[in-house]
Design a protein that fits this description.
The chain is mainly alpha-helical. It has helices spanning 21-32, 39-59, 65-81, 87-107, 111-128, 131-147, 151-160, 169-185, 189-207, 222-236, 241-257, 266-281, 285-302, 305-314. This is XRE family transcriptional regulator.
Length: 318
């Protein structure tokens, strides 16, 4: 895992971007008198959220729950009072914050609360008429369905997330790979392979249009989609060891290919765990135990109870 010696410039270990005095004053006045919201306030909130997303990659979800909840409460007041031509922009950035907080709650183990905040994000995204944001929120609801073991909802919500016209191909790519995961959970190898191939086509198209990418897709990379392929294969490997070996290969390539700044993220730990599961399915308990040690180290550094539980599940003593 990549070491991190301290917060990067413009970030704090509490997940808050360090504002200059003018930005801070503007945000405080906007919170007290919401009718003062202007484009510079909206741009500042978007910049803070971009920093929060990358901060989570460094310190995990838990430390951000308090700060992001407080920030979202303030943004809720701004959205409630926003009027005129800037309302759509304010509602849009509010939807992005609600989506991020919903993910944080789910990542910390409260999937039900995460879904409630995604519902609010979906309302704001719909009002703002941002088809990519609507797709992202619906896709994340599919991800939370996967976290809860609901294959049908994983497939259905992932498919719904790509129905909009004019979607950025990266939105289609991540939802197609997620739908493949759902089909793999049911043992439908043909449908899973078809969606994985579609995801690869869409991901390649997205790489030709990086300037159009929504800010929340900053983490997309070829390695991520290799990891997604590995996850679908891991489910298919329940019934076919050939798929299980392909899963092990895909996970290995994907983890080694992740950008350095993402290899120590909490979400990358999920794929370490899934690689360990694939080794267990192959009867390779010693290798799974080695990965349990890696996952324990990562979980301890990030203070992640979820990763620690996953490490325990991979341990030879389990």
């Amino acid at each position: 895992m990549a070491p991190h010696d301290g917060p990067q410039t413009g970030q704090s270990w509490h997940g808050q971007t360090e504002l200059n005095p003018e930005d801070e004053e503007r945000l405080i006045k906007a919170a007290c008198r919401p009718t003062r919201v202007d484009r510079s306030v909206i741009e500042s909130l978007a910049a803070i959220l971009a920093a929060q997303r990358r901060t989570e990659d460094v310190i995990g979800s838990g430390p951000l729950l308090g700060p992001v909840r407080a920030q979202l409460d303030m943004i809720g007041h701004l959205v409630a009072e926003a009027r005129g031509p800037l309302r759509s922009e304010m509602v849009n950035v509010g939807g992005q914050w609600a989506q991020f907080y919903g993910w944080l709650r789910a990542s910390c183990g409260d999937v039900a609360a995460g879904n409630r905040h995604l519902d609010r994000a979906l309302e704001w995204a719909t009002e703002s008429a941002d088809v990519d944001l609507v797709s992202e929120v619906v896709s994340f609801k599919g991800h939370l369905a996967w976290m809860s073991g609901q294959a049908g909802a994983t497939i259905g919500l992932s498919a719904a997330a790509v129905r909009g016209d004019g979607l950025y191909p990266g939105q289609r790519a991540i939802s197609c790979s997620q739908e493949a995961r759902g089909h793999a959970m049911t043992g439908d190898a043909w449908a899973a392979e078809a969606k994985l191939d579609e995801a690869d086509v869409q991901a390649a198209a997205a790489r030709e249009r990086l300037d159009d990418a929504p800010p929340w897709l900053y983490y997309h990379s070829p390695a991520l989609f290799e990891l997604e392929r590995g996850l679908a294969y891991r489910y298919l490997g329940h019934h076919d060891q050939r798929y299980n070996q392909r899963a092990i290969k895909a996970f290995g390539q994907g983890l080694s290919g992740l950008p350095v700044e993402m290899r120590g993220s909490e979400w990358s730990g999920e794929f370490i765990y899934q690689l360990g599961r694939a080794h267990l399915q192959a009867g390779e308990r010693e290798e799974a135990g080695r990965l349990a040690g890696d996952l324990t180290s990562l979980g301890e550094r990030l203070g992640s109870d979820r990763l620690m539980r996953q490490a325990e599940a991979l341990s030879p003593s389990s």
